[in-house]
Design goal:
Length: 75
């Protein structure tokens, strides 16, 4: 593992220390986890089909994957 130095806002560090105390985990572990999750999001992993379904009411009709794709690209 590579050691690095990071400058953080004092209020953010207090919040991290508080979270570390509540969860019984070191601050460094919380920061590593946050960095890993950030990098995963930035690398665009996943698919639109991985997004959970939002149940916003009655379904008006069904679409095939092809129809969804056509709608997305503006056909």
């Amino acid at each position: 593992m590579k050691a690095i130095s990071v400058h953080v806002d004092e209020a953010d560090y207090r919040d991290l220390k508080s979270l570390a105390t509540r969860t019984g985990r070191p601050v460094a572990e919380l920061i590593r986890q946050a960095m890993t999750e950030y990098l995963k999001r930035q690398q665009g992993r996943g698919s639109i089909f991985d997004v959970p379904v939002h149940h916003g009411g009655a379904q008006l009709g069904t679409w095939t994957r092809e129809e969804v794709f056509d709608e997305m690209i503006g056909k």
